[in-house]
Every structure is written in C-alpha cells, then in structure tokens.
C-alpha cells in the first residue's frame, strides 16, 4: 500500500465500513419490518423453529454484509491495479477487516431485541444471538477475502442474497394473502403449500425451488466472468459460494439436528445439496467457456500458419522453352 494517497485510502476504508454497516442495517430493517424473523415470543410460548430460523438469518445477514462492504470498497474505492500481488492481498485484507468492523452493527441490532426472547435453556438469549452474529461476521470475512479476488464468487453471493430476500418477501405476502398467522420465514425457503408433498423429511416444492435457483444463479453469475476471460477454475467453483454461505448459516444455527422440527429440518437437509446444484450451473458455464476458448485458439493458430500456395516462377532467358 506504499505510495497510495492517504485521502483515497481513508475513502476506500470508509466505503468498506459504511457499506457493510448499511447492508446489515438495511437487511435487518426489512426482516423486522416484514416479520421475516423475530425474537418476540408468540402467544404459544417459545417457538423452536422460529428461533433457529432467526439465528440462521442472523448469520446470513452478518456474513453477507461483510462481503458486500468489501466488494463495494474494492470496486468503488482505491484501484489496486498497480499494486504488487502481495500489496494487493494486503490491501484487500484491510478492506475486509474494515467491512467486518462495519458488519458488527448486526450484533447490536440483533442482540438488543433478543432480550425479549424467552428461552428455557438460557437466561441471556441476547448473548447467544450476539455470538451468532459475531460468528457470521467472521464467516463473512473469510468469504469476502475469496470473493474480492474472484469476481464470479462475489456476483454469486450478491445475486443469491437478492434472491433470498425476494423469496422472503413473496413468502410473507403469500401468508398475508392467505390470512395465515404471521410466522417467520426460513432462510431461502418458501413453503408454497401447507400439505406437502413430502419425501421422508424433505419438503419437495421447497427443495426443488432451492436446487433450481442455485443452478440458475450459479450459471448467471458465472457467465459474465467466463466471457471476460478470467480463470475458469474460479468460475467453475463460484456456483457453490452463495449456497455454501446458506449451508454454513444453517450449520451454525443447528449443528445437531436432534430435536429440530420437520418444517425446519427440510431446509437443513436440502442446503448441502443446493451447494452441489450451484456447482452444476457454474461448472457447465465454465465447460462451455473453455470449449469456446479452445475453438478460438485453434482458429487463431490456423490464421497464423503460412499459406501453402505455390507461386509461379518467372522465366528467364536461359530457361529451356
């Protein structure tokens, strides 16, 4: 980072911190406003499914906020084109740390409302919620360090985040239109029907939606990067990024599935398969891009080869007629 103007360094770090804090606050505002997740006890007492769903949302929001802040600062802040590889890594690490500090706003905005939660297994639920938010920030720091260096992964996480919120809003509006009692929305899951169909412990419509969206997003996020000529390994792996963050959020929320209710269990079981589905989408795009590059390279090689066209030799006076 030697030689960088101090004013631009401060600007980029401020963008990282502010964008992460704004992303976290905005997502929590939407979630609280629509009732996507809540820490307030229901009239029926403690709802374990709502508690686990809210914890998963907490991890997801804190993690994605860090990623958004880091990528935004890298794109809008000080350009790292002229830096050495080590300098670029250090600079992007600095941005990720600044974004992590901004993402800590999620800790306060979730732990304080969580004081209203009534849990039989703890007298300080706000400490549990705050710990999950911090874990999400750390998780997001790791993802951000990867995403800021691989554009396809950054795109995948961003598009996945937008998709999850679209699903959450649609699920909330669907429940209101059907005059159902307000309830929290599972991360990335829309319970289209109340009666199934179910396959063992898996809710089939929700699993198809999760897998199908992962494939489509994996392909869409990978396509621009593949066409720009970037490294195809990163493109191929990018499809797993967003679904992996979702799976990580579910894993942190419930490391052990014992006692998890059926309506919540399906989402936990499907999340790892969504990672594979996302990989399918991005790997297909990478394979198509690789084939296209090989064809283009072959054509270029053919154009560079000298033509095997024989030219007529002029006759001279000494030649025999």
UniProtKB/TrEMBL annotation:
Q: Where are the transmembrane segments?
A: 49-73, 94-116, 128-150, 162-178, 198-220, 232-253, 273-291
Q: Which UniProt keywords apply?
A: Membrane, Transmembrane, Transmembrane helix
Name the chain's protein: Uncharacterized protein
Record flagged with keyword Membrane: yes
Highest taxon above the source species: Bacteria
Q: Which organism is it from?
A: Rhizocola hellebori
Question: Is Membrane included in the keywords of this UniProt record?
Answer: yes
């Amino acid at each position: 980072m030697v030689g960088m103007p101090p004013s631009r360094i401060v600007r980029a770090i401020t963008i990282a911190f502010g964008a992460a804090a704004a992303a976290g606050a905005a997502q929590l505002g939407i979630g609280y406003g629509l009732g996507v997740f809540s820490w307030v006890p229901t009239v029926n007492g403690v709802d374990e499914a709502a508690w686990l769903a809210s914890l998963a949302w907490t991890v997801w929001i804190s993690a994605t906020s860090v990623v958004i802040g880091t990528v935004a600062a890298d794109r809008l802040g000080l350009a790292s084109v002229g830096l050495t590889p080590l300098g670029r890594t250090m600079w992007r690490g600095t941005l990720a740390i600044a974004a992590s500090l901004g993402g800590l706003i999620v800790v306060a905005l979730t732990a304080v409302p969580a004081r209203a939660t009534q849990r039989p297994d703890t007298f300080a639920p706000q400490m549990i919620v705050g710990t999950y938010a911090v874990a999400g920030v750390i998780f997001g720091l790791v993802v951000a360090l990867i995403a800021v260096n691989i554009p396809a992964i950054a795109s995948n996480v961003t598009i996945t985040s937008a998709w999850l919120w679209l699903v959450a809003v649609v699920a909330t509006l669907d429940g209101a239109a059907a005059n159902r009692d307000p309830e929290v929305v599972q991360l990335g899951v829309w319970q289209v029907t109340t009666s199934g169909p179910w396959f063992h412990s898996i809710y089939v419509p929700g699993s198809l939606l999760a897998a199908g969206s992962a494939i489509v997003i994996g392909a869409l996020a990978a396509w621009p990067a593949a066409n720009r000529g970037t490294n195809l390994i990163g493109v191929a792996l990018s499809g797993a990024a967003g679904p992996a963050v979702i799976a990580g959020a579910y894993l942190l929320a419930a490391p052990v599935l014992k006692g998890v209710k059926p309506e919540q269990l399906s989402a936990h079981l499907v999340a790892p398969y969504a990672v594979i589905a996302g990989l399918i989408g991005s790997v297909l795009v990478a394979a198509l891009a690789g084939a296209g590059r090989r064809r283009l390279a072959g054509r270029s090689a053919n154009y560079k080869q000298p033509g095997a066209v024989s030219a007529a030799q002029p006759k001279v006076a000494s030649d025999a007629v």
